[in-house]
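are you around this afternoon, could really use another pair of eyes. what follows is a protein written twice so to speak, once as letters and once as structure tokens for the fold. i want to understand how the tokens follow from the sequence so walk me through it. anything you notice is useful, everything is just below.
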Amino acid sequence: MRVSWITKDEARATVEYGTSAGVYDSSVTGTTSSYKYVLYKSGQIHEAVIGPLKPDTVYYYRCSSDPSREFNLKTPPAQFPIKFAHISRSDYDMLLLPGDLSYADFYQPLWDSFGRLVEPLASQRPWMVTQGNHEIEKIPVVHSKSFTSYNARWRMPFEESGSTSNLYYSFDVAGVHVIMLGSYTDFGPDSDQYRWLQEDLGKVDRARTPWVVVLIHAPWYNTNTAHQGEKESVDMKAAMEDLLYQARVDIVFAGHVHAYERFTRVYDGKADDCGPVHITIGDGGNREGLATKEASFGYGQFEVVNETHAQWTWHRNDNDESVVADSVWLTSLSSNPICKH
């Protein structure tokens, strides 16, 4: 598991950890980097990969040998059940976030304040993210490179899945194969991302990972008024939807549209029992023109109970109270006889 943290001054990129508070019987030293963005210069960005770790276990750790700050994290289980969340305070094993993290939008100190804001939660559970349009931060002539801050601060395990880019990758956890795709990098049939996705889906062993989940930022299915007709939705769907359908992907989560919306199983614009369920869960963050449908703040939880059944629940935040507003039980496509090739 990769631990990342930032210090203002130079410090060792060392994480000390163990299964008892204050007792660190293991340690690892990683790497340190920084980046510049126009006139801004980041702090010292440290990262270190700790482990191997035991599943479903609480570890205590400290960074850069700082005796004043001890954190703890709980590792995901090795087998079902497992609970994923999209923006939740507690009661989950792993958080999945389909892009648009800090909304820094070129103003780099907001990346720092965002890090401080999420630290109490992100330090306790694995956060697996992909990028959105607000992470691009490309300025013609002034700063010609995209995703500078995102790639420097949120390094995901892309090399481990054979990807050449931090913008798309995959991983296995407790019987679920999770694929993070990049809506804002090349996705056409001649692109590296397309070829990587094709190879990655071809390697999936449904006996070992009976569930396959995909995250994108720009939704392929969207009946809201916001973000209609964008190429990141329309063209990416045209290029990649058949790959996901043929691989019997179970569910596709998207963000971008600041509302909640769930579709039935669908493929090529029509209901299809062997297509993925598409869910837009873009209502967890910035108030940026909340759209129609369920245009309230909320969060979702996806609990995979076993090889065949999982429950998706969407909670509306009504006056700071969590209210279940949508819930559905899903059956894995790998267990559906009519969907077997």
